[in-house]
Specification:
Length: about 120
Amino acid sequence: MLEGVLIAESLRVGAELAGVPLHVTKMARVEVGNAAAEQPQQWTLLDFAAEEADAARLAEQLAACLAPTGGWYVNYNTTAEAFVVFADKIFRYPRKQTEGRRQAQAYARSIGIPEPQLDWQD
């Protein structure tokens, strides 16, 4: 199983994620102290799990569903790979690979994601 977290506020208005079964394992509403300028101060976190075989298809769907502004991404991991998905951009690299993580973080910085939010686990 792959596991990750989706921030509900990161979705484009009208976006629909379909065809990839997700199992929501936890929902939480949190106050965020390090929100970017275009992000709300409260987020709805959806912890999810899915079959590893759906990892690439899930990345494609999420890339089409995430808002292109506001500095949003979704990350999740399979047993072997880390996925970091932005609006219309996917980074996929072997877990714990420094170069893959560095490239994803550089892209995140380029679209205005604050440094404290670059703390995903891979």
